[in-house]
Amino acid sequence: QVQLVESGGGLVQAGASLRLTCAASGRTASTAAMGWFRQAPAQEREFVAAIARSGSTTYYTNSVKDRFTISRDNAKNTVSLQMSSLEPEDTAVYFCAARVTFSDDNYYTTRSQYPYWGRGTQVTVSS
After folding, report:
1. What's the rounded mean pLDDT across residues 56-80?
2. CA 104/CA 127 separation, integer angstroms
3. 77 exposed, middle or buried (CB, 10 Å; 0-12, 13-18, 19+)?
């Protein structure tokens, strides 16, 4: 089992930066590939970024590439999403997700690949 708790959301103006953090706990937290998803009102939850268990590989959806950076600190069992140049279109609830894996380098980009989820943190970007 992996438990996930997100933090760092808030209300910012367009162009600002925010850093989200996901704290993972549980027996298998250190063996999980991690991802960030987001869900805007009345929309499907969508993939944002993913990072392999080792941190060696990352992947981003096109709309956040060059603006967002995912990273992890395995010693602290945390995953972060540094968001810069925020746009009103980034407004959503952001969710952290985990998948226990034996692979050091695989990442995952679909909702169905992640069995563990946090409750989310709200990010609101005003224009």
Report:
1. 96
2. 40
3. middle
